[in-house]
User: What shape does this take?
Amino acid sequence: MPKAPAGTIYRGREGMWSWVAHRVTGIGIFFFLLVHIVDTALVRVSPESYNEVIATYKTTIVGLMEVLLVAAIVFHAFNGLRIILVDFWSKGPRYQRQMLAGVGILWLVLMVPFLVRHLSHVFGG
Amino acid sequence: MTLTTEAPGATPAEAPSAIPSFQVTMRLRRFNPESDTEPRWENHTLTMHGTDRVLDALHKIKWEIDGSLTFRRSCAHGICGSDAMRINGRNRLACKTLLKDLPLKKPITVEPIKGLAVQKDLVVDMEPFYAAYKSIMPFLITTGNDPSRERRQSPADRERFDDTTKCILCAACTTSCPVYWSDGQYFGPQAIVGAHRFIFDSRDEGAEQRLEILNDREGVWRCRTTFNCTDACPRGIEVTKAIQEVKQALLFRRV
Assistant: This one.
């Protein structure tokens, strides 16, 4: 035990963790967009360096980062719709947990085919 | 000191023999402002019974082991809202949480509620919480002469705000809110529940003023719908739903 024992983390339920995940994915997507704007703008500066940068995106490690990016965007998109429903649909707050399960199902439905296709590109050349 | 249903010290041998007893470790987060610079954890292992609540365990510690343990409780039956605390990481009323409903293999952690300054052990400074409640004017506002008889209301109109009349001001919701932990200026779920109770009351005429107060930067728009408040409420108020209705009133009915 350290000298000043920390308090415990609040054990929130689905609602709290979906909010945390929404924040984390949102901030992640924001930083991706910053980089993306910079790399796309590069084509106006120098098409050669643009090509160079885009070439590095074809490596395996970036391919795996793309998996994280798509996973984050798909979650953020569907959970965003859930939050809109929580705020605007009169029964939204009551069914938030079921809607989160729906977000998870839709996320899987989109991610599984994407992963199959994307990873076969990444690892299959 | 008030008496509770048990007679302290007298019972262990006789009556509870029919009630299953078990060992439970209470892990309390304690802080004595006179001797501690930081809060510390303290464990007590007790023999308790299937009918005992977390509050009974705290009583046992206070009455039989360490009289310096400090916590608030008054009615001990879930009505006064004094003993909200963080039990196993979640805001609960100690008097409404049965020990047997908690996992007893591990110690039961009991901490003060978050987001309000700890004064001693489980006692926090509730003043900022009450100040937020006062600021939404939790009283009937009317214009014109007082009627000569009661203000009548249809059952349907009464039903409109029934849920938010249940609030006991225990602060379990407000101190479960991640927004409130990081921003003490936020009114917090309870104040919005308190406002909701009057905004949707057909007899009240202060809705505009209250909505204006909650339209503030630190008002209802700070809600991030984490549902911690709804999960924490010992009265089962759908707090997030009440907040949503206030948001809707601001968006559509008035503007």
Observations:
- Residues 127-143+157-252 of chain B form a domain with the Fumarate Reductase Iron-sulfur Protein; Chain B, domain 2 fold (CATH 1.10.1060.10).
- Chain B has eight helices and seven strands.
